[in-house]
Design a protein that fits this description.
The protein is α+β, with helices and mostly antiparallel strands. It has 5 helices and 9 strands. The chain is globular and about 50 Å long.
């Protein structure tokens, strides 16, 4: 875990706070919220980050959202609490955007400039590789699940009539459903490419 933080810090790439970073910095929420299920793990990890040389790494991961040029907003779960209820109001980074959440993506993000100020977005948390598209001309939305036939094939986002919400997928974690996937975003050519670790 610390090695990953060190890589992000070394290359000064855009980084946003995920649910674990948020939980680590909010011990007051350890009881009575979803993170209470992980009290033991959080206690162990906080001990690591209490060491002076590690504190700055966690401090680097404090932004909830950030922009990549003028095209993409990067966030972990959502930009607003999209799955709250009367019993529990999750923090945006705790939320999930599942393939079934087409209405949330269309109305809450693409259709609401207060929640999304860029044409496209990059998100995570579900570890499901694939992308949402929304057509400005037809007003139709869809979810495209990643398949192995898509690997190493650039997908253009340069068409101004289409908006994308892209999940890179497993982010190095192999699951029963998906291989280890990553995403290459080429802002010069305006395309993105799924990469697969075939040796994992």
């Amino acid at each position: 875990m610390l090695d990953t933080y060190r890589i992000i810090e070394k290359y000064k790439g855009p980084a946003v706070q995920g649910n674990w970073e948020y939980w680590l910095t909010h011990p007051e929420r350890d009881h009575g919220t979803y993170q209470s299920k992980y009290t033991d793990q959080l206690t162990q990890r906080r001990q690591l980050f209490d060491e002076k040389e590690n504190r700055k790494m966690l401090a680097y991961m404090t932004q909830q959202t950030t922009q990549i040029e003028d095209s993409f907003t990067l966030f972990h779960g959502c930009t607003y609490p999209c799955h709250g209820n009367s019993d529990y109001q999750p923090h945006p980074c705790e939320c999930y955007l599942f393939p079934r959440d087409l209405n949330i993506v269309t109305r809450g993000l693409f259709g609401n400039p207060q929640n999304l100020t860029t044409p496209h977005f990059l998100f995570g948390h579900t570890h499901i590789p694939g992308y949402f598209t929304y057509s400005l001309s037809s007003r139709k939305n869809m979810w495209q699940l990643f398949t192995l036939s898509m690997q190493n094939r650039p997908i253009s986002y340069g068409d101004s009539t289409l908006r994308f919400g892209i999940n890179p997928g497993t982010a190095g974690i192999k699951t029963r459903r998906f291989p280890r996937t990553a995403l290459l975003l080429d802002t010069a050519q305006k395309n993105f490419t799924y990469l697969v670790d075939t040796e994992a």
